[in-house]
Amino acid sequence: MYDQGRITSSASICLLVAALVMFLSACGGGDAPEYAERKVDEIYNEAVDQLERREYLAAAALFDEVERQHPYSVWATKAQLMAGFAQYQNNSYAEAIIALDRFIQLHPGNRDIAYAYYLKSLCYYQQISDVARDQKATEKALNVLQEVMRRFPKSNYARDARLKIDLTRDHLAGKEMDIGRYYLERNHFLAAINRFRRVVEQYQTTTHVPEALHRLVEAYTALGIVDEARKSAAVLGHNYPGSEWYNDSYSLAEGIERPDKQEEGFLERAWGWMF
User: Fold this and answer.
1) 226, 213 contact by CB (below 8 A)
2) pLDDT tens, 156-202?
3) Where exactly are the structural domains of the chain?
4) What confidence tens digit (pLDDT) does each residue in 110-166 have?
5) Cα distance between residue 246 and residue 241, in whole Å
6) Is a pLDDT exceeding 50 seen at residue 7?
């Protein structure tokens, strides 16, 4: 007579073995896996189609799939860059920068490397916010734009980078002015002076310099530092005689003459202070 416990145990083992056989059979046949290997040109062309439909996230995923399935193909290198472009088009700037940094690190000699740097600069440039907010993205945009100019001075991207550098520097100067005005309105004159001088000394070609000079006149006059107020007014009058800040500055710095009537050498001393 067979032991009942052994029969039950044997039956359980048989069921487990049968289940395992069925699982392995299912893996060996049936439907193909979701990410079955496809020809590289098929995946790449589908990604381009998704781009044209403005399905940017789907396009980025397909470009990534090109590299996953065919990592050593020429298409994979191009797909890395295009994945960054797709993320940029989707306004997913952080993801785009990651993809572009990877392309730059892996393919520094690629013929599209200038475009990769330029696109990276655009990712930061598009994130530039109002001067009342943090300007880290603006600073990063300026750094990468300058790198485009330095590395690829004869490229078409350098021409646009030059224009964007001017706009970016003007924005950074605007931030300094915003902080300086904040201090000036609260009678923190030394803190305000530091901000306005930074605009005059570091952002000389921006549109904010005339106002910065005028604000320096205001701050120095409030502190009773007449000589410095006069120097600031002199530089303002000599370089920006037609600006809206001209007359106000000379009214504040009492007794100062207009630049064309000043003693010889005074403007030179004022210019030396500025630079």
Assistant:
1) no
2) 999 999 999 999 999 999 999 999 999 999 999 999 999 999 999 99
3) 187-275
4) 999 999 999 999 999 999 988 878 899 999 999 999 999 999 999 999 999 999 999
5) 6
6) no
Residue type, 220: Y
- CA–CA gap between residue 63 and residue 65 (Å, rounded): 5
Q: How many residues are there in the chain? A: 275
What's the rounded Cα separation, in Å, for the pair 191 and 194? 5
Sign of CA dihedral 2, 5, 6, 7: positive
- pTM score: 0.73
